[in-house]
Write the structure tokens for this entry.
Amino acid sequence: MAQRLPRARRSLGQNFLVSPGVVERILDAVAAPPALPVFEIGPGTGALTLPLAARGALVAAFEIDRALAGRLEAELGKNPRAEVVNADYRGIDLDAEAAARGWTGYVLAGNIPYLLTSTILLGLPGLARCRRAVIMVQREVGERVLAPPGSRRCGILSVYLQAYLAVSRVMNVGAGSFRPRPKVDSVVLRFEPTAREGAPRDRGAFLALLKGAFAQRRKKLGNALAAAYGPEAATALAAGSGVDAGRRPEELTLEEWFALAEAAPAGGTLSDGKR
Ligand code: SAM
């Protein structure tokens, strides 16, 4: 931790973790048994990568900043179990990367650039080989992810992620644990795949449904769906699912969302094809 930090590039969401206590707690969550290889998003100066490698973990880290990737590679030296890939995470197919390395399962870890939060989180249910993810997010986003369906804060991220994953809080992290100090506090979340009965198989259609329903939060469900898909499709959806269209989207339980998804046309194509 005593290392000199490089000048941070705000455009890449660079806020480096400088709290040994926070690092330790994240590592415990990442390396919890069963020990698995680790993919890391945005290793930066190696706050997580270096101690993970020191613990003997098999780790491959994707860093977009060429200078940081080079610096970390040099620090890792010739450790054959640690690899830094200078690449944009958004272009990486993690399951294919795992298959190429012969990894049948992996943990995804990251103190991520917050600009990519939605992209990364919404991608989690689709990672077939990912057995656990330990991700730092902005506190306010984390609270929404953790909000139970039916509660005031619940939104697209809560319903979509909880449909496929068990989500829990590892720890809250104050802004003072980073350099430069961000404007917001953070929270580390743990995600594990879970088989929830009735969870829609067509994740794309389910996400489209949630986006339509939550597009106008203050509106009643029926009005939101009508605005998104047209009145006829909205009425058919509510009737087919048995869900009262007069309620607000944040009031629905997971089971009611699943019933709505079930009633949606096969392939998820709603009347005006807004997907
Ligand atoms: N993990 C380090 C730590 O905890 O100190 C750095 C965290 S910093 C919040 C986010 C890191 O993600 C930076 O190193 C940044 O360069 C990198 N990054 C930003 N966009 C990226 C992308 N699209 N793909 C891969 N890495 C990215």
